[in-house]
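We emphasize that the prediction below concerns an isolated chain of 283 residues; any contacts that depend on oligomerization or on bound cofactors are therefore not represented. The input was used exactly as deposited, without trimming of termini.
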Amino acid sequence: IEPINCTDIRFEDFSAQQQRMWTIHPTLCDNIVAKNLNIRSTGGNGDGIDVDSCRHVRIDNCDIDTGDDCIAIKSGRGMEGYRIARPTEDVSISNCTLGDSIFACIGVGSETSGGIRNIHIEHCKFTHAKTYSIYIKTNIDRGAFIEDISANDLEVVSATGGFLRLNLTGSGIKDPEPVPGDEGIPSTKNFRFSNVKIAQCGRLIDAGMVSPVKPLDGFAVSNVSGNCEKAIALANIRNASLSNINVTGFEGAFLSTADVTGTGLENAVPYKAPRSATSSPAR
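Result of the prediction step, given as a token string:
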């Protein structure tokens, strides 16, 4: 289901089944409501709802179990998306039950060249994730921005990879016409996560793949409880804030950091960021 350049759309009270392809894909649309949907899919690319360069979107009370991302937020890839410059913005995801068997429950990216901002996630249950419950992903040749991402009141039942991953330097295929130089490094700011309960979780937070050229400005995590196999790794972040994180069962250090400033960082151990997070983009 793929509306393009439409306004005032309602997807409500129906079920959909799909295989190896996105199920609902609004593109360049405004004022969208997706409510009381039941979506099932299998196989790679079997996403549930992909919001692509759209504004004013509300996804509420949906039950989505997919082969790939349950919900993905996108805005175009490479210079094509960068020239159009149509961000996805003002998206609310609430009261949803989400599970996936290949990738993430909620993916932001990796196509982000038009920009992404004002994404709010709340009162959601993640039943199972093959990688991470929330995965924010882009690449150093995408340009534009990802900003003002917030999530509150979440329950993670099972996540093989973990609760949250930020891969801002190495996700997605190479763009045929990349955004060049430092302009191609997406700017990122104001990511906030609060009131999260986790169980059967791989890593709590993997935020190692962030560019040192454009560090993430503003990263807050508060009121997290449960158990995980590994805890927190952060790199290239300014104005981080960690508070009231009470997790058990993890191996190794609770907090590992590389070039991170902020509060709640006491007793952090040095962290060697992944190579793609420390190298500059090709010129």
